[in-house]
Specification:
Strand content of chain B: 15-25%
Strand content of chain A: under 5%
Largest sheet of chain A: none
Helix content of chain A: over 70%
Oligomer: heterodimer
Largest interface: A-B, 43 and 44 residues
Shape of chain A: globular
Order of helices and strands of chain A: HHHHHHHHHHHHHHHHHHHH
Distance between the termini of chain B: 54 Å
Strand order of the largest sheet of chain B: 6-7-8-3-9-10
Structural class of chain A: mainly alpha
Number of helices of chain B: 10
Number of strands of chain A: 0
Largest sheet of chain B: 6 strands, mixed
Radius of gyration of chain B: 19 Å
Distance between the termini of chain A: 36 Å
Helix content of chain B: 40-55%
Number of strands of chain B: 10
Radius of gyration of chain A: 26 Å
Chain lengths: 511, 254
């Protein structure tokens, strides 16, 4: 460890070590390291031809390039902000070693400053690691000043960390600790999705995006356009102009240090009060005083629905995944050609596939991410009833999400609507059943990193989903060929089917 | 009268290591039986097999005459299992938790509602009935889990370290509740490292080590067996398991 025990440097070393082990630890650590190295090498290889082409080319500093740099900076800043906001609220709740640090004679502000510095470092690393392999060849071919992009990113990361902390504390004061966490997590997911959608403008808007881009470029290139002062800072800093670079770094450091110095005491208090966030908060007592739900199915269904409803962040994470499918859906719809029947059929297939994907996530949560598996296991409840209730609870949000769009589709185009509804139901049920037959136990908090039963199961899930989507598309065209992929999907489902005994044995083998 | 629990030649082998090694014991109906043993003796593994959470490698388990391996649902209907880490849902309130557990055991909704109210009042959780469990202290979580174990009025209650981490008041409450259940005819089997508790509330005590039953009986019988006629249960336990020798040696070295 570096530095004197108890010093800021020593604490920072401790944080970095924890982060590193978090990234590289576990069974997938080596795989993660290998993937990172592979991506890095690929970028480095791709960077050389680009650097060769750009040798001797000076980056233009005009309205257009300034605006482009500003927009990119804003997007990067938003993503960093979402990262640090989620990190700051996690620090409030998932305290980890904060209890240990706060109980030591260390100044809590020092501990928090280091924790936030590590958040800033993580935010920087996400982009810095991506940019470095591209910048190195550029530096070798004469553009060594462009390495200044890295400190520019560091300045953005520092500013985003300060803003994230301030936002977390402000939300905590305004809406309370529990909602802060939910809002922060949902906000982070939305910013992430917005970033992705912005990067897909061309796919979403198709040919129109070209015209729009030309208009924007034309407006930006207009010499009469007067940009606000300091708008050129990000571009100039990234190109290695010392003054804007130093200014951006200074602003970032001042915001970060100022906010942490000003708010870390407050944050430490908030972290303490977050521990008892629910204490004393009553939840509409009248609602739970009615008679109990009777029977295994009703009780399990109700419990799963309550747990899903109360984990808004997780639900948002799942439902926002549908946004990631939008560009592909738009692409299919557009490329389906001028004939609207084909476009509609492609749309129906897209809806079925989307339903399967969302159902797969939701049923993993209800079936595999059981928080008290032993309670269920030691109960005399029939496993089939428990499983059926969990599957239905997992599909309920999807039904709520699709019922109106499908209703509208049926009204507008009955054949397509019915095909899309049947396909969506079939794809969702198939995904749920595969999850139930091949459960992969995990925690809800590990949703993003969840394991599927096996690579084969994951591929089978995808194949079945695609087959049903294809059958849906063909059914929307009233084609008898729809029976072929449908039959294949049924055969695949039969092959994947497991008896309750086999499921129990598989679970026992995993534990 | 049928014994509450009969384990016959019960064995559980993990890989090649036997955690429970040909264990045979009987727990009478209506008694409070304490299963003691050093760390890693096989207590929890034994109880998890009784609760139907682990399949034994060999041997048999009978719960009130029912073969728990042949008819696990019938056996589970009579059992409640409460591990040391409460099996709770952070985002449910205690009332909702009890509603769920009552549903799993098929308790009539009206009956379940009445029992939940009674249990939450008795355990001092009535005022928190509509708060989510995530903000509860360990003691409150333990009490909510205990209420869940009792909501279906089990004939046999199996508790793994039920008093770990509880303060004196909660600990007393739990002990009183267990004794009240035994007086009401239920059978309680518990493991504990707090030997004073076993000494004070257990009718009979079983001591296991390395998966085998070392000794079993009332405190007086165990004292006699260990040749510690005036000794505490701690003395008896250390004598029978030989665990005290290591401490003596370390003390002597120091």
């Amino acid at each position: 460890m570096i530095g004197q025990p108890g010093s800021t440097l020593w604490l920072l070393g401790h944080e970095l070590r924890l982060n590193w082990r978090g990234l590289m630890g576990g069974r997938r650590g080596a795989w993660r390291l290998g993937s990172l190295a592979f991506v890095g090498v690929m970028l480095l290889i791709g960077g050389f031809p680009v650097a060769w082409m750009l040798r001797g080319v000076e980056a233009p500093v005009n309205n257009l390039s300034i605006l482009a740099a500003d927009i990119v900076s804003l997007l990067v800043f938003s993503l960093m902000l979402s990262q640090t906001l989620a990190g700051a609220t996690d620090a409030l709740y998932t305290r980890g070693d904060l209890d240990l640090l706060f109980s030591s004679p260390l100044d809590p502000r020092k501990a928090l400053t280091v924790r936030f510095a590590s958040l800033a470092a993580s935010a920087f690393a996400s982009f810095g690691l991506l940019a470095t392999p591209l910048l190195l060849p550029l530096a070798l071919f004469g553009h060594w000043r462009w390495l200044a992009l890295l400190p520019t990113l560091a300045a953005l990361a520092l500013t985003a960390s300060g803003a994230g902390l301030a936002l977390a504390v402000a939300l905590f004061a305004l809406i309370g600790p529990r909602r802060t966490r939910t809002v922060a997590q949902v906000l982070a997911a939305i910013i992430g999705a917005a970033f992705f959608l912005a990067s897909q403008t061309r796919t979403l808007l198709g040919a129109k995006s070209g015209g729009l881009a030309m208009q924007v470029v034309g407006a930006a290139a207009d010499p009469r356009l007067r940009l606000p002062p300091l708008a050129d800072w990000p571009l100039r800093a990234a190109l290695g102009d010392p003054l804007p670079l130093a200014a951006m770094l200074t602003v970032g450091a001042v915001i970060f240090l100022g906010v942490t110095a000003w708010l870390s005491r407050r944050f430490a208090d908030d972290a303490t009060s977050a521990q008892g966030a629910d204490a004393g908060q009553r939840r509409r007592p009248g609602r739970t005083l009615g008679p109990f739900a009777g029977g295994v199915f009703a009780a399990t269904f109700l419990k799963e629905i309550r747990l899903l409803r109360r984990d808004a962040a997780l639900l948002a994470q799942v439902l926002l995944r549908t946004l990631y499918l939008l560009p592909a859906t738009f692409l299919v719809l557009r490329n389906a050609g001028g004939h609207s029947t084909y476009a509609l059929a492609a749309g129906a297939a897209g809806i079925a596939f989307l339903a399967g994907q969302v159902a797969s996530s939701l049923t993993w949560i209800t079936v595999s991410a059981e928080e008290a598996p032993e309670l269920i296991a030691c109960a005399p409840a029939p496993a089939a009833s428990v499983r059926a209730a969990k599957l239905l609870a997992g599909l309920a949000p999807l039904i709520a999400m699709l019922v109106i769009p499908l209703g509208v589709l049926i009204w507008l185009s009955p054949v397509t609507g019915v095909a899309a509804s049947a396909g969506a139901a079939a794809d969702a049920i198939a995904a749920g059943l595969i999850n139930a037959w091949h459960p992969a136990p995990g925690k809800r908090s590990e949703f993003r990193r969840r394991r599927t039963g096996s690579i084969l199961t994951g591929l089978a899930l995808l194949a079945v989903s695609l087959l049903i989507a294809a059958a849906t598309g063909l059914a929307a065209l009233a084609s008898p060929f729809a029976l072929a992929p449908a039959a294949l999907a049924v055969v695949a489902l039969f092959a994947l089917r497991r008896s309750p005994g086999q499921i129990a044995d598989a679970l026992a083998a995993r534990s | 009268m049928v014994d509450a629990l009969v384990l016959d030649d019960l064995t559980k082998v993990f890989a090649t290591t036997p955690a429970v090694d040909h264990l045979s014991l009987r727990v009478r109906a209506g008694e409070l039986y304490a299963l003691l043993g050093p760390n890693g003796a096989g207590k929890t593994t034994t109880l998890r097999m009784v609760a139907g959470l682990l399949k034994p490698t060999s041997g048999s388990i009978r719960v009130f005459g029912v073969d728990a391996l042949a008819d696990p649902a019938a056996a589970k209907q009579m059992i409640a299992w409460a591990p040391d880490e409460p099996m709770l849902y952070d985002r449910l309130t205690p009332m909702e938790y009890l509603e769920f557990v009552a549903g799993l055991w098929g308790v009539e909704p009206k009956e379940g509602r009445a029992r939940a109210e009674l249990l939450l009042k008795f355990l001092g959780l009535w005022d928190q009935r509509d708060q989510r469990c995530e903000a509860f202290s360990r003691g409150m979580k333990q009490k909510a889990a205990l209420a869940g174990a009792l909501i279906h009025e089990p004939r046999m209650l199996i508790l793994d370290e039920p008093l770990t981490g509880l303060d004196a008041a909660v600990s007393r409450q739990v002990k009183d509740l267990l004794q009240a259940r035994v007086r009401g005819g239920a059978t309680v089997i518990l493991t504990t490292h707090i030997l004073e508790v076993a000494e004070r509330i257990a009718d009979r005590i079983g001591i296991i080590q390395a998966g085998k039953l070392l000794a079993e009986g009332t405190l007086a019988e165990l004292r006699e067996r260990a040749g510690e006629l005036q000794g505490t249960l701690e003395d008896v336990f250390l004598e029978l398991t030989g665990e005290g020798d290591a401490g003596h040696e370390v003390g002597a070295d120091a």
